[in-house]
Structure formats: structure tokens, C-alpha cells
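Please study the protein below:
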Amino acid sequence: SKQGCGDNDGLCHDADLRSGSVGGNEGVYALSVISGFVDVDVITRSLSRSATYDLGAEVAAMGIVLAAASNTLVKGLIFAFIAGFRDTIRLPVFLLAAILPGVVIAVYLL
């Protein structure tokens, strides 16, 4: 069996991912950041549903915050690319102002 997966078939199933047996909390956080690059809605629904069963609410909340933060950064980069990087010199300040309070509060509360 593959290390970290529950069945003898060597494959990781949804239940393994929800239970944290593959990657642990860090895996949830990494997946949240990567998912936030594309679409924050899917990871938000998935983590919310998992938190009601077997994923800790704290882990789910931090995953959602990380997904939202990475999604905001990607949207900022897309805007900078379209508008031109010279015209968006203040963009990092605004992105930081949008992201930092949520991350600080999430870390403080967890």
C-alpha cells in the first residue's frame, strides 16, 4: 500500500484526503493556495463540507483564507499584465492592504 493511503490498492481516495492521511494540514494548505490560483469557489465549498465531517474547522478556515489570498494575488497580476506594469506601480500596496488583514486575523484566531 502507498504510504499515507488507507486501502491496499495503493490509491488515495477522497476519504483519505478528507481525513488528512495524505499530506496532513500542510497538504490542505498547499492545495488551497494552488486552487486559489484558478478558482476559489470550489476549494471553499470542498473545505466547508469537509469541516462538517472530519477536517478541523481551523484547518478549513485557514485553507479558505489562503485560497482567497492567492486568488487575489493572481487577479492583481492579471490586472497588471493587462494594464501594463508601469501603470500599476501602486498595485502591490493595494493588494497587501486587501490580503494582510484577513491573513493576520486568521492566524491570530487559529
